[in-house]
Design brief:
Layout (H helix, E strand, L loop, with lengths): L5 E2 L3 E4 L6 H8 L2 H4 L9 H18 L3 E6 L5 E8 L14 E6 L8 H17 L4 E5 L4 H9 L3 E8 L2 E8 L3
Antiparallel strand pairs: 1-2, 2-3, 3-4, 4-5, 6-8, 7-8
């Protein structure tokens, strides 16, 4: 089964491939990109494992993250999509498709995250049906909290994940 490629006005979203690694490594080795996600830049080995995990989602679950490419330049500007991480946290998110996103620093603040999340959610509704979606965001990550709110996510609770505070948000079906 071919994995889906999505398009928005300014972006192409396609599942990750091996050739994405150099741009993926550059993104995840930037401390600013990682500040609210992993808390630290990723080394090459960890970045490779992350890319393999993203690609593996498509193979094992039939969904995953897309690499985001700017149509105008052809540059990889980030990633967005759905994950099943079996997070060891309360509440468990196993029953809801979990969406996430991240952008290279140069692409932040241009509306790309919202554009990618909207495209992913439209695809997700076709794939999963009219279900509740979830996401987790660092409470200090104002830009991502605003992206989530514009996409219809509402804060459900605050908890911790890997000893860090997080906000759990849900988007109920319309």
């Amino acid at each position: 089964m071919a994995h889906p490629v999505l398009q928005t006005d300014r972006l192409v979203l396609r599942p990750p491939v091996r050739d994405d690694f150099a741009a993926h490594l550059a993104m995840w080795s930037d401390p600013e990109v990682c500040r609210f996600i992993s808390g630290r830049p990723l080394a090459e080995e960890d970045s490779w494992a992350r890319l393999m995990r993203l690609a593996g989602h498509w193979a094992l679950a039939g969904y995953g993250f897309w690499s985001l490419f700017e149509k105008a330049s052809g540059l990889r500007v980030g990633e967005a999509g759905f994950l099943d991480l079996r997070r060891d946290m309360v509440p468990r998110l196993d029953e809801t498709p979990e969406i996430g996103w991240g952008l290279v620093r140069a692409a932040q603040g241009k509306g790309y995250a919202g554009e990618a999340v909207a495209a992913a959610l439209a695809w997700g509704e076709a794939r999963f049906g009219k279900v509740r979606f979830s996401c987790i965001i660092d409470p200090d990550n104002g830009p991502s909290l605003r992206v989530a709110a514009r996409a219809g996510f509402r804060e459900a609770l605050r908890t911790t994940y890997k000893d860090k505070p997080i906000v759990v948000l849900y988007r109920d079906p319309s």
